[in-house]
Design a protein that fits this description.
The protein has 249 residues and is of the alpha+beta class. The protein has three helices and 17 strands. The strands form seven sheets. The protein has a four-stranded antiparallel sheet with strand order 6-5-12-15, with no helix packed on it.
Length: 249
């Protein structure tokens, strides 16, 4: 009986973790460049072990917690510093502890002329150098589909002042989420510079969250969690009855 109680507890914990994961997705449904976090489950015991050694009782746990890097929908803004990547690829940004990767392209320029993401991370070029735009008047700044940044001079000519570093990762499973839209690269993975990226200037890539789907998963997980709770409560009541019977006489 104790094994059955712990089996239900394992299932309840797994579903609780899944609900926390879904809540994070729903909280970021409007976050630029956010990628869905997903989970898969597995049984701890194989069919033979479950039948022969556990009397049909099994335990569930999270098998994998992974990021779905499917491209999100595009939103047109007409802002020359809003940039979305079509297809595979990531922008590189500078964090306090190293280079990070993101799909977030809502850029702006600070008072020093440094190009930043919407969450104030400095954007890097191919050589991991900060991108500085001398003219901070965005009406004079343009970015082409290859990521070249130019400013319009007084005489009407355009001068290239920087270029966005766009890279692909050979194994996106090696990208570790460090915040809502930032990822670090684990050992064993490599970045490759995209020589001719296809950028949508004046557009933002929104999150790839399907709200209806996430809500359905939330309801299903909640119901399953409640079922496990009822099983645990039933086992607790049976345990109390056993204790009462054990004291008779």
């Amino acid at each position: 009986m104790v094994s059955g109680k712990y089996s239900a507890l394992a299932g309840a914990i797994s579903r609780e973790q899944r609900m926390a994961n879904i809540s994070a997705n729903l909280a970021n449904v409007n976050t630029v460049g956010y990628k869905k976090n997903s989970m898969t489950f597995e049984s701890i015991l194989s069919g033979e072990q479950q039948t022969a050694n556990a009397k049909g009782i099994n335990y569930s746990r999270i098998r994998d917690n992974f990021t779905d890097f499917t491209e999100g929908p595009m939103k047109e803004t007409a802002n020359p510093l809003d940039i979305a990547i079509h297809g595979d690829g990531f922008f590189k940004v500078q964090a306090t502890d190293g280079v990070r990767y993101t799909r977030r392209g809502d850029f702006h320029v600070d008072s020093d002329g440094t190009l930043l993401t919407g969450n104030d991370m400095p954007v890097l070029d191919e050589g991991n150098a900060l991108i500085t735009i001398p003219e901070t008047d965005t009406s004079k700044v343009s970015v082409n589909s290859l990521g070249e940044i130019s400013i319009l001079s007084v005489d009407g000519t355009r001068n290239i002042v920087g270029e966005l570093g766009i890279v692909t990762i050979n194994d996106t499973n090696k990208l570790k989420r460090v915040s809502d839209t930032l990822y670090s690269l684990e050992q064993g993975a490599q970045e490759t510079v995209v020589e001719e990226p296809y950028l949508a200037v004046g557009n933002l890539e929104m999150s790839n969250i399907n709200t209806t789907e996430e809500m359905a998963l939330m309801i299903e997980s909640m119901r399953t969690f409640e079922s496990y709770q009822k099983v645990i409560q039933a086992y607790s009541k049976l345990g109390q009855k056993q204790d009462e019977l054990g004291t008779i006489g």
